[in-house]
Amino acid sequence: MQAYQPVRLRAAGGTGITRPLLGGLLFLWILLPLVPLILWSVAAEWRAPDVLPGAFSTDGLAALLRPEVLTATGASLVLGLSVALPATVLGALAAFAIRRLPNGWARGVEMILLAPLAIPPFALVMGSNVLLLGARVPAFPSVVLVLTVTALPYTVFMFRAALASYDDQFEEVARTLGASSRAVLARVRIPLLARATARAAFLAFLVGWSDYITTLLVGGGQLLTLPLVLGSAASATGNEQLTAALSLAMIVPPLLLLALLAVPGPRRRR
Amino acid sequence: MSSSLTFDRVSRMFGQSEVLSDVSLTVPARSLVALLGASGSGKSTLLRIASGLDAPSSGSVLVDGQDASAVPAENRGIAVVFQKPLLFPHLTVVDNVAFPARMAGVTRREARSQALEFLDLVQLGGFARRMPGQLSGGQEQRVSLARALAAQPRILLLDEPFSSLDSRLTDDMYELVGKIRAELEPTIVLVTHDRREASVLADTIAVLDEGTILQHGPVPELHYQPATRAVNRILGGLNEVPGHAAGGFHTSVLGRVRVQPGVPDGPALLVVRQEALRLIRNDDGGTSSGDEAPTGVVTEVKSMGAHVLVRVRVESAPGSGSTAVESIAVELAGAPALRAGDRVGVSLAGGQGWVVRA
Ligand SMILES: Nc1ncnc2c1ncn2[C@@H]1O[C@H](COP(=O)(O)OP(=O)(O)O)[C@@H](O)[C@H]1O
Ligand SMILES: [Mg+2]
Fold first, then answer.
1. ipTM of this model?
2. Separation in Å, CA B127 to CA A4, B96, B98, B134, B136
3. What would the CATH number be for the domain defined by A61-262?
4. B348 contacts chain A (CB < 8 A)
5. How far apart are CA B203 and CA B104, in angstroms?
6. pLDDT, tens digit (0-9, with 9 covering 90-100), for B200-225
7. What is the pLDDT of residues A132-142, one digit of tens each?
8. Do A178 and B53 touch (CB under 8 A)?
9. How much distance in Å is there from the Cα of B238 to the middle of ligand 1?
């Protein structure tokens, strides 16, 4: 949850102009790399010294509608959602469970849950691949399984942060004000943890949506997602237009989701 | 609408430790009883049991004489205000106060219009559309109080609700409690570790110590007629003068003092409030009239703001056959010109004493 009492931080040396300036720079830093990408996606021809493409075409964008690209996009969406659901639920459960532990134990369990972040993904994937192949688990569930473990640190972290400022007494006070257990869940617990849940699910979705290595190695080529299609397009030469279009297709859906998350809930404004 | 609340031999075990043992206490309808005790004495546990958030290991809670054990918290009609305001951060101030009515099935429009009345009662009508994070600590606690009252509870439980507010704000809150009592006449149990707060607000004080009620009575009784040394200390009494009781009198360094009837002969402690003692200046060592008054030497003069606390080493009167020496605390108004080493007489206003078992 957001801080219970909003704390107004003044930017260091926060005179009128520095803050918007810094913000603008940050914005540019994130957006600037997108500009060539957008240009490439609609360029028919773009030679080295030129600032802008010499000719434009929509072939690259049109290629996104090819059946194999659409299938791959669908597969990525399904993979992202399939990772988001268990990783969010498990993350919430883990965070609630860790909170019940005495302090020392909580820290230990937290370290174990965060460990996948420290292990190079390649090592993690190779290790689990051996196990999953041995157990003859099919490709898709195997990928979901490994990616859920990868996503878990993010979701646990989101919920840990949210629960740190979450007080069980909110639920108790609601009960003494006449709220049944169901009303407590619907009117207090879920609204109070809604933002954290959305953020956790978003991060976990991204893990599935943008994964390359796990899908390639554990999926064994059977699972063709958008990043794999993008990878093969990028490794071929003279394919910049398609590569750029595919990259945009990778970026836009998460950006839309993010924008959705940033919109304040209707309750805030009533 | 206001109900009486009775604890009938309530005990609560947490594992092996008994946090409440055999607590019996009655809170009459429309009265305000303060539960006074140190932190860890079991006050919050007792309130949680009353509200239904916790259950007693044995014993029962009665509301208007009816056993409430089987009634879950949400149906008990007992509202609680905790130390933290616990305003729901996703709801506006008015929707926080409208929450209980919404839970009772009232329409949103009706619930809000009721909520506004309760916000007016706590003088925050103008803050209805704010979010809780935009209020100060004192305002949040007022809203929390309004929200509890909006539940139109049969009994209102306050668990140290003012203890994180600064002293100027607490005085405003005390005034607000008085206003609420005058307008709505709720039954209130106030938990506090602050004896001043208990004395200012309560009709009666129940002293809780290590899970047992030591004494329950009107505010002056607790101060001047404590049942035990522990009660005297919890209410801030500083003087427990050892001596001997015989034939309705107590003899000590403070002399021979008449005490309450029914005291058995034998060793006993004379309890005198530091506020009930006076000092007599013996300017040139000689005494003018009060040769009965015990005398002593000032050892410490400590400022307590508008009052000073003077400690006096009092010796037995010469010829009394005793060589006892006691340090006696005396609280005086103003700024008396006293210094350590001054010789003073100590006099007991009223001349009536109160003793407890040694
Ligand atoms: N849920 C619990 N589990 C174990 N011990 C508890 C629990 N709640 C309270 N206690 C213990 O009971 C004692 C009384 O607590 P509490 O009622 O909160 O005291 P107070 O409100 O007077 O400070 C404390 O020693 C506390 O540690
Ligand atoms: Mg407490």
1. 0.87
2. 18, 12, 14, 9, 11
3. 1.10.3720.10
4. no
5. 32
6. 999 999 999 999 999 999 999 999 99
7. 877 888 889 98
8. no
9. 28
